[in-house]
Amino acid sequence: MAGTGQATAQQLTKRVVKTTATEQHMDFAKAKTTMKNVMRVQNPLAYGDSTTVLYEDFSNMYEGSIGNPDTSVELTSDTVSSYPFWINMIPVYTHVPGWGGHNIYPAGEVVSTADNDGGNLNTPMLDCSKQQGVVFLEFKARTDDGVADQPIIVEAAETYNMSPTWDMLGSGTVTVTPEWQTYTVSFYGAGNYTLFNIVRQQMSQDDEVHRVYIDDVRVYTIKPHIKMPTAMPYTDYKGSSFVAHWTKVDGATGYKLNVYSKEMSDDGTQTTKDYLKQDMDVSDTLATVSGTTSGQTYYYTVRAVNAEGQESFESPEYEVFDLEAPVLEKSTIEDTTYVAKWSDVPTAERYNYWAYFTRTADSDGEFTLTNESFDGLQMKDGSEVTWSFDDPTYYSYDDYFITPSSQAGWDAKNGIPYPGCVCVDGWQYIFNHKDAGLVSPDLDLSKDGGKVKVKVQLRGDKGDVWYNDGTKETRYTRCAVALFNWDDNIGDYRQAELQYTDSISPEAFGDYTINLTKGSARSKIGIYAVWAPAHLYMKNLVVSQNYKAGETFVDPFVYGRWLETTDDSITVPAKAYGCPITHKVSAVKTNPSTYQIKESRFSDTEEVGIVSGIESVGLSRASVLVENGKLMVNGNGPVSVYTIDGKMVYNGRTVDGTMALPLKSGAYIVKTKDNTVKVVF
């Protein structure tokens, strides 16, 4: 295949714990999050009645004065709490405990940041979950007389009671002058343990840092006249249009929709909105937005309006970051190869290409969909595996697509090949909260009412989990098998079923059978390492369903991942001879804000053709015939025999110029060194 470059480097990842929010210190104040969750409201009280969550006037900080803060007073201490970076304010200085900060001093019943060095002041963790998580931070601020205006960052995060991972609610910058002013910033998505942070730090090399004084900090919520709708995922993206969706609000007689793109100033400090639709009146909970530029990023927000004309808060914006689907050109099979070509998509960086062959059940009964031994796996660069169970590796790939494989598209997340098997690293699941599992391609599992049998051989490992008191627990790998079904409403897969095994032996492989019951026309199966920070090894994977004679299965045999070009040369494998070949393609790009990869919807699935005429292919150095129920091959060299559904039933060589192989009646593909023959008996 041509053009199989990866969008990211194919480097192995070592076991390293990712930095958590509580270890990031002042990085939290560096505006790593976008401003999309920060709402500017001119007059919040016009939307409803307020409820104060926190008010602090700093009247206990009576030392010092404006222009002369008392830098000898230590307002903070690392011994105040178990979280000395965020909860370190000595309680006597505030009316409510739990505050924190750095480089701050009393200045006559106000808080001052340090001159030249800046500083930060953060609130306690607060329950701001009421009123749909919309919360307002209000405070007064000023600078010293005669100094330049000072920019400060205002940000918020839901800490989940100082858990290892936080949800950053957004950040914004306001400019502070020598005159006292009141600033109000609102955030979406607040929860039960939300923390607010006000920061003065050097914003650029030319930024001269001076003191900023802060007073009268108030956090409050608004009980609105009418609730705010929630912008939902868009649908039907076509490049020149899409359909925006949002939730229905009780009491709403209509909605106002805004759609816009954004442009950042050259210095990166200002964002302007270019409105495509502004205050568009809509009576339903969806609207077709036309006139968009293919591949450009848009955002939409919506407000609800009641019969009195009162409006809700504007919903958090929903990003439209997408690509239109490529269009496949007509492909023609020549001998056993063809070239797939498709249209160039605006803003696309790569393409994902899939090719399939359609298999048909010859009779009623169990039909094998997947049959992967995982023998002879290679590294991504094609090199051999050099480690073993006795000499393991603790590196892994973020995504290791099984190579070579019979069925294309199986992805070992945080996985790596081992001799005779594939391994996923449960250490990454336990400590870095990343999936560690083998995930199937999109498969049709709808036959037999969605009943699916998964048979696999598993071998585990052991790893230690340490607790805060210094004790440890040795755990053994367990396995979770999940079934995911495609949901058009969310444009993604949704978990439909989950089963667990007990601890798995680290000494030898054992046989496991998992029966799933909720397969659909678009399903994925995932086999995951859980419970222990240790390896899970897998081999001899078989997925099957009960089929009726004549039912078909579309089996992927090519997955061209992240192709750089708009074409790919395909060789049809012997197992697909005589079967209809189809294909499809999608476009891919990376979101520069989130670094998430966006894949377009697929092109229409198009027919390619059938590799035909193989029954009449003559062999120059071998002859194939059937005698007395045995397959006879005469000639010298290797011989491979496949069933029509792609299962290898023999792989060897002729002995003394001949081979006799007893087989059940049926259809087989016989492949020799030089030719391939289809035999039916």
From TrEMBL:
Stated name of the protein: Fibronectin type-III domain-containing protein
Lineage: Bacteria, Pseudomonadati, Bacteroidota, Bacteroidia, Bacteroidales
Protein origin, superkingdom: Bacteria
InterPro entries the UniProt entry points to: FN3_dom, FN3_sf, Galactose-bd-like_sf, Ig-like_fold
Transmembrane segments: none
Occurrences of domain Fibronectin type-III (ranges): 228-326
Gene3D superfamilies documented for this protein: Galactose-binding domain-like, Immunoglobulins
